[in-house]
């Protein structure tokens, strides 16, 4: 039943309906006795109040509340008939209330069972007088006309007819609502995948454009750097003994040139296409080597590594060195994010079978996390939040995963730690990238 928390227009209709019932002429029994039908009014008020506030019962006890609701309505309806003339009462229509309620809450067989119980209560107003007026031989002193029996049978048949009709209508509405709900879930999942695909496409375009720029820039920088380094080394040899200060300055120049060369090499790693050496590989050994590399890099870090590796992971066609580099970069980022305080690095790997077959690997730390507005930018080249970072680590990682026809994304928010999810397909790349 739909939950409500305020007085609805249907409640107003119930009030009007019950006021109309209360305003009907008194029964013949009340007219003969000359007394107002206070019992009738109280029962009608009870029926109206329960009908309006029934949703609260269902909120507190949703399963048993349905049974209590139908039973209470049958009981109140029987009381109303008992105080308004029994089988002769025109209020027998009140029994449609528990019949319709059962049709709304239960399946067809249960609805028919509740309707049979309601019908039994109604018929009891005929059976009870027959069993109380017996002669010495046990035969009833009362006789029921055939027309009355026919009328009683028709009323009971209409109880079942209404129950079946309402139940079929409600069941069809439920099926339609379920279909709409499934369609909405499918559309939501499709939209989510479309947004993810668009995000990956935008990232790939930026990577391609910036890769070309980085490659050209790195190529142009290497020649002058080589000249500078050669000149500095020549200067060091010429004045090594005569001018110590000049020798020291030349050494600074040489070391800075080496640092610049390392940076240019990273630019070229990002810019140049990777030639994939693909073989059938197991994922767990690559993860373990990456975790060992991160632990060797941060030997004093107070990081606890939790592993959740599925035993039935399929072998994947991939370049083991490049994928190990991806895992190592994610593990190193997690160690660095958690810092001196340390934390927990949770690594998991599970097979994927929903549409695309492959393996999903996650690296989740307990660091400060990544703000939502930065989730897409962190894969951009040269974007970094580190003081000494260049901003190419995640870009290269993303490019390697893309070359394997996989995907990488962030699936957590700030305050929850960073969680990177890598998907690698079972078939690997279509062909090695030249």
Detailed description of the structure:
It is a single chain. With 434 residues, the chain is α+β, with helices and mostly antiparallel strands. Among the domains are: 136 residues, no CATH class; 158 residues, Histidine kinase-like ATPase, C-terminal domain (Heat Shock Protein 90), CATH 3.30.565. Helix content is 61%, strand content 9%. It has 12 helices and 7 strands. The strands form 2 sheets. A 5-stranded mixed β-sheet has the order 2-4-5-7-6, covered by helices on one side. A hairpin with an 8-residue loop joins strand 6 and strand 7. Helix 5 packs antiparallel against helix 6. The longest helix has 93 residues. The chain is rod-shaped and about 135 Å long. The N terminus is likely disordered.
List the helices and strands and how they pair.
Blueprint: H1 9-22, H2 28-33, H3 38-52, H4 54-60, H5 64-83, H6 96-105, H7 108-132, H8 146-238, H9 244-271, E1 279-281, H10 283-297, E2 303-309, E3 316-318, H11 320-338, E4 343-352, E5 358-364, H12 393-403, E6 407-410, E7 419-425
Parallel strand pairs: 2-4
Antiparallel strand pairs: 1-3, 4-5, 5-7, 6-7
Task: Compute the separation of the termini in Å.
Answer: 62 Å
Order of helices and strands: HHHHHHHHHEHEEHEEHEE
**CATH evolutionary superfamily of the domain at 277-434:** Histidine kinase-like ATPase, C-terminal domain
Largest sheet: 5 strands, mixed
| CATH top level class name of the domain at 277-434 | Alpha Beta
Strand order of the largest sheet: 2-4-5-7-6
**Which secondary-structure class do the elements indicate?**
alpha+beta
Mean pLDDT: 79
Quote the beta fraction: 5-15%
CATH architecture of the domain at 277-434: 2-Layer Sandwich
**Unreliable runs:** 1-7
How many helical stretches? 12
Shape label:
rod-shaped
Spatial extent as radius of gyration: 40 Å
| CATH topology category name of the domain at 277-434 | Heat Shock Protein 90
């Amino acid at each position: 039943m739909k939950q409500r928390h305020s007085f609805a227009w249907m409640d107003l209709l119930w009030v009007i309906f019950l006021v109309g019932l209360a305003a009907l002429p008194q029964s013949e029994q009340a007219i003969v006795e000359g007394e107002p039908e206070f019992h009738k009014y109280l029962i009608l008020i009870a029926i109206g109040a329960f009908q309006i506030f029934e949703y609260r019962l269902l909120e507190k006890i949703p399963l048993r509340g349905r049974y209590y609701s139908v039973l209470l309505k049958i009981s109140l309806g029987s009381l109303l008939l008992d105080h308004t003339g029994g089988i002769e009462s025109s209020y027998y229509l009140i029994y449609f209330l528990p019949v319709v309620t059962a049709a709304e809450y239960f399946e067809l067989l249960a609805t028919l069972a509740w309707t049979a119980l309601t019908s039994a209560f109604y018929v009891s107003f005929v059976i009870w007088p027959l069993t109380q007026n017996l002669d010495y031989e046990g035969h009833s002193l009362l006789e029921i006309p055939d027309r009355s029996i026919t009328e009683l049978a028709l009323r009971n048949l209409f109880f079942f007819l209404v129950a079946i009709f309402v139940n079929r209508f409600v069941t069809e509405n439920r099926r339609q609502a379920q279909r709409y709900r499934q369609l909405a879930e499918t559309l939501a999942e499709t939209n989510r995948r479309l947004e993810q695909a668009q995000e990956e496409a935008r990232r790939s375009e930026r990577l391609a454009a910036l890769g070309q720029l980085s490659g050209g820039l790195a190529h142009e920088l290497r020649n002058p750097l080589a000249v500078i380094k050669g000149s500095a080394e020549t200067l060091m040899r010429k004045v090594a003994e005569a001018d110590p200060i000049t020798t020291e300055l030349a050494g600074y120049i040489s070391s800075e040139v080496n640092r610049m060369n390392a940076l240019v090499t990273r630019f070229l790693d990002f810019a140049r296409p990777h030639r994939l050496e693909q073989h059938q590989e197991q994922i767990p050994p690559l993860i373990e080597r990456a975790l060992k590399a991160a632990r060797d890099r941060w030997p004093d870090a107070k990081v606890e590594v939790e592993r959740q590796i599925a035993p039935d992971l399929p072998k994947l066609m991939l370049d083991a060195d490049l994928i190990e580099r991806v895992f190592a970069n994610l593990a190193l980022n997690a160690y660095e994010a958690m810092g001196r305080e340390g934390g927990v690095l949770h690594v998991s790997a599970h097979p994927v079978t929903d549409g695309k077959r492959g393996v999903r690997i996650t690296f989740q730390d307990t660091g400060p996390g990544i703000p939502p507005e930065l989730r897409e930018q962190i894969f951009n080249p040269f974007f970094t939040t580190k003081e000494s970072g260049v901003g190419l680590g995640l870009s290269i990682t993303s490019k390697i995963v893309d070359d394997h026809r996989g995907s990488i994304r962030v699936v957590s928010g700030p305050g929850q730690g960073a969680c990177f999810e890598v998907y690698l397909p079972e078939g690997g790349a279509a062909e090695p990238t030249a």
